[in-house]
Each structure stands twice: as C-alpha cells, then as structure tokens.
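Troubleshooting log. The previous structure file for this entry was overwritten by mistake, so regenerating from the original sequence record. Sequence copied from the archived sheet and checked twice against the printout by T.R.
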Amino acid sequence: MTFNDFNFDQSLIDGLQSMGYKLPTPIQQQAIPVIQAGKDLIACAQTGTGKTAAFVLPILDKILKTKKGGINTLIIAPTRELVLQIDQQIEGMAYFCGVSSIGIYGGNDGIAWGRQASALKEGVDIVIATPGRLIALLQSGDVKFDTIEHLILDEADRMLDMGFADDIKTILKYVPEKRQTVMFSATMAPKIRVLAGHLLQNPESINIAISKPAAGIVQQAYVVYENQKEKLLKEILKNEDFSSIIVFSSTKEKVKDLAHTFKTLKYSVQGFSSDLEQTEREEIMRNFKARKLRILIGTDILSRGIDVDGISLVVNYDAPPDPEDYIHRIGRTARAEKAGVAITFINEKDQPRFAQIEALMGIDVVKMPIPEEFGKGPEYNPDAAKKKFDGPRPFNNKGGGAKSGIKKPFHRPKKA
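Regenerated output below.
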C-alpha cells in the first residue's frame, strides 16, 4: 500500500513527498480509511508508530475537498510539547494545501493569548489545544465551535492520568453533538473504554501491539546500587557514537542535579522540566532537534511530548513507575524504522518494577556487566527485592508482547 491508495488531494501528496514520507505505517493503513468513511474511531498504538499522521492526513484531505469556512477540526492533547509537535506536522503536511492551524496552550505571554483568541474568532481550519488554555478562551464567550465537524483526542490515557477528565467534559459542551470523534490512546485501560463510551458513537476499534517496543531497539540493563548510577552514566556517555541522547530521571530535582553535574564536566547537556518557561523549553527542543545539544535530561514529560528522529540512546537513570511508561520512554529511539539503544539502571528497590516490565514485553532484557572498577552491584533477584522493599503498584498484564529476546546486545563502551 502507498499513500496514493487513499486518493488524497495531490497537494497533500506533494506535502508528504517533501517531508520524506514513503509508505504508510500499519496504524495509518488501518485508521485512515475509517476516518475517511466518517466513522468514529478508538485507536490504540504505541509511540513512534505514525499515529499523528494517521488522523491528520484524512482530516486535511477532507478539509481540502469540502471546505466550508469556520473551524473544522479540534484536536485536544495533554501537553504543550505535543500540541506544538502536532501543529508542526500539520504545517509540513499542509505546506502546499493552504490549510491553516494554530496551537493553543498556556505558559506564554499576553500577546500570545491575544493571537490565539483572534485566531479562534476568525476561524482557522484546525485548532490543536491543551484543555486548560482552551477552556479559558472558550469561557471568554467570544469563541464559537458550532462549525466543528471533527473532534480528536490524542493520548487520551495521558489526559486522564493528568486529571483532565472534567475539562474534556466541559469542552464537549461547546462542540456540536453531530460530529466525527476520533480517540487515540497508548493504552486501553478500563477508564479509556468508559471515556470512549461517553464520546463515541458505534466506533471502529484498532489495536496496534501497544506492549511491544520497536524492533530496532537494543535493550540493555545494568543492575546497580544507587551510588553507582552517576559513574556508570559518565562511562556510557564517553561513547561518541551516541550523538543524540535522552536521559530519564524520576524527579525534577534529580533532573536539575544531573544536568548541573554533566554541565560541569563540559558535556553538551540541558535539563528539561515543567519548571522551565515555555520559551526556554522551545529553545531547548530546537537545539536538540538541530543537534546543537547532545544530551537532554528530563522526567516523563519527555516520553510523550517530543518527536525527534535519530535519537541514538535512551537511558532510564531511574526505572519508570509503570511498565507502559517504559515502552513510551524507549520509544523515543529507533523511530521511523531506525536502530537505537535503550539502557536502564536497576537498583535494588526497582527490581520488582523492572520484572513487571519484562513480563509485559515477554522478554528478559540483557543484564550487562558493571565495569570492575565500579565495584560489584547487587544480584538481580526481583522476588527477594519485593520482600525487602515496598513493591510497585499492581499491574494487570493483558495481551502479548514480543516473543524473542535480544539477539545482539550492545557492549559496554570502552573508556576514553
């Protein structure tokens, strides 16, 4: 199948070609015809599968072929980073189409507020918004959504996790009942099914292997004591083959400490957290995408908030709190069928947590030896660790995962 099989407007095909799109991904192959047919859809797909294009492309094509004026489509996303990412992708795909869009999000100045309010009043084709800022603009009374034909919720599970359920219900009061509704989620937890039942009418359902990391990711783990992590990270970062790196940590405080430590060591590094001003976050992301910045250290806000190709290494400095979060984190690498490495540091307390991750994926991640000069690490025994520490929250493992192990582990980098 090619993009020509969808009978897209030629200007849209030209935009895809200019962006380097070649063949549709599985989620695009399945979702695009459903959206083109005007049916409601609930789709479950892991990060990096091309889900944004799966809903943007058919919407752009519909706007081109039936343009009526006014706001046509509302896309709701949980974070400013994701709003910007979607808006940038629309801009690229619609470059030759003349379809307009605007990102609506908080954390900026009064000038941006005025620009967003004016755009909503004048009627752009597509609005991409975070719930909080959108509600604030709607409650001003000057914005009308009566022309909206398509409502899309991206990363619906993340929005519920962040407490946006009531905000979504509020926004629905402003949107016509007669509309096409599309919901994308990385997980299909019961709460997502409940939300879908309220929003969707006789929806089609698509599920794309959410619990299986991309095939190009080489996964490794080091079983370490907490005080060995920083030395091990320094050793790994000496490998210059890793040109673009994301390090995930559990707290904003630890992000700041690690960023400070590695800046002192003259590494090209920045910390990334919600404490930064929006302009600072945007500048950091521009530099990271442009390869002016080698290392980005952040919390889970990065696991679903950025879209950067060519990330060669993801390091879980702290094991993620939930098995699905692990899939999202390591999904930042090996995007678009490229290869990448994902390394996780496992201390004693995190061993039961990582065992659940392995159970979800159906594989045992290769445990790499710690350099001798760092001393011996703890044994990997998640059952014993569970007795010693308070275990992680229960996880209900439903549905498959990868069946094969790692064929070719990435060896420890040599010291410089």
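Confidence is low (pLDDT under 50) at residues 390-416. Archived copy saved in two places this time.
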